[in-house]
């Protein structure tokens, strides 16, 4: 209930705060009794509401993705970047900018999604070689190697093409500005399927956390389950990254914070992580609009600035939960 209240409060603040602040009373009237002749109502419904919905969707997807990634790899610091998914999306966006001249979020949406899928498939292919198959350690190492390689390729392409650098630098830090239903709509079915499927992964992730031998002894098909969980992770990260860019630390920090209240049971971690991450992302987006007025920061910068010290504090206090 606290998380739901926080998410509702963050949503109302997201609708009220901007280059020109609007009262919460006007926000409520715009929602329940929209007046097409009122400029404040137009700003709320046509401009800020789509951005808020995108923030909720992206935040929920990243919160779930972080919990799923850590459960899949049994690695408490696993996140989409470590597994090579976000770097793969970034490389595909750069290719779209350089080779096809794509310059807007709606245009490079599918490039980012395809890049995330291809990078994940490559990580899985490398990690699954050998007798043991795709073990957590091999997945993590393969993801780190693919991530490093794709990041180097991105840097090389951006240095060679200055116009690509100008376009890419705004996407690469993660942003909700300029993201509306035109960006979210085409990929919303994938996002909805990924979120719903992830919420049913509690029991498989709990069994994987016990180790492959124990999970297999309890009747779990480890290889098939890991492949299914990896596919859901790719959908979550691919859609979120395609819409808003690679937003760092959110998927890493939120599952750790949630474990302080839920314990290690993924049947609770997953449903708690979604609203927690969505609320944090909206609060960060509101802060990004305030600290640099009349302009605004990219929300990815605010999340990183806040998330890094929070994660360090969790580690120093010994609260970075093990798996």
TrEMBL record:
Entry's transmembrane regions: 49-69, 81-102, 108-127, 139-160, 180-201, 227-252, 272-292, 299-316
UniProt-annotated location(s): Cell membrane
UniProt keyword annotations, A-Z: Cell membrane, Membrane, Transmembrane, Transmembrane helix, Transport
Cross-referenced Pfam families: FecCD
Keyword Membrane: yes
Membrane-related topology note: Multi-pass membrane protein
Stored SUPFAM superfamilies: ABC transporter involved in vitamin B12 uptake, BtuC
Chief place where the protein resides: membrane
Keyword rRNA processing tagged: no
Family: Belongs to the binding-protein-dependent transport system permease family. FecCD subfamily.
Name recorded for this polypeptide: Iron chelate uptake ABC transporter family permease subunit
């Amino acid at each position: 209930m606290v998380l739901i209240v926080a998410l509702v409060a963050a949503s109302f603040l997201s609708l009220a705060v901007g280059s020109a602040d609007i009262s919460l009373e006007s926000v409520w009237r715009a929602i329940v009794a929209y007046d097409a002749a009122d400029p404040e109502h137009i700003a709320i419904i046509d401009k800020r509401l789509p951005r808020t919905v995108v923030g909720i969707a992206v935040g929920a997807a990243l919160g779930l993705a972080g919990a799923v990634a850590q459960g899949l790899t049994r690695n408490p610091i696993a996140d989409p970047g470590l597994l090579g998914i976000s770097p793969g999306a970034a490389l595909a966006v750069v290719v779209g900018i350089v080779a096809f001249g794509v310059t807007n979020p709606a245009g490079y949406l599918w490039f980012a999604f395809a890049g995330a899928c291809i990078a994940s498939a490559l990580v899985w292919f490398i990690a699954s070689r050998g007798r043991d198959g795709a073990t957590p350690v091999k997945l993590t190492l393969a993801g780190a190697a693919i991530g490093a390689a794709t990041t180097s390729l991105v840097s090389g392409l951006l240095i060679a093409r200055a116009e690509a650098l100008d376009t890419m630098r705004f996407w690469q830090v993660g942003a909700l500005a300029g993201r509306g239903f035109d960006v979210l709509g085409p990929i919303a079915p994938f996002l909805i399927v990924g979120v719903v499927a992830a919420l049913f992964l509690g029991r498989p992730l709990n069994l994987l956390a016990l180790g492959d031998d124990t999970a297999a002894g309890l009747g779990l098909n480890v290889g098939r389950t890991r492949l299914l969980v990896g596919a859901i992770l790719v959908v979550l990260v691919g859609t979120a990254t395609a819409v808003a860019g690679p937003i760092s630390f959110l998927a890493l920090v939120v599952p750790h914070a949630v474990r302080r209240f839920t314990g290690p049971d993924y049947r609770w971690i997953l449903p708690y992580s979604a609203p927690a991450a969505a609320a944090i992302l909206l609060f960060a987006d509101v802060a990004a609009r305030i600290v640099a007025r009349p302009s605004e920061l990219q929300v990815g910068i605010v999340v990183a600035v806040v998330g890094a010290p929070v994660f360090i504090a969790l580690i120093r206090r010994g609260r970075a939960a093990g798996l």
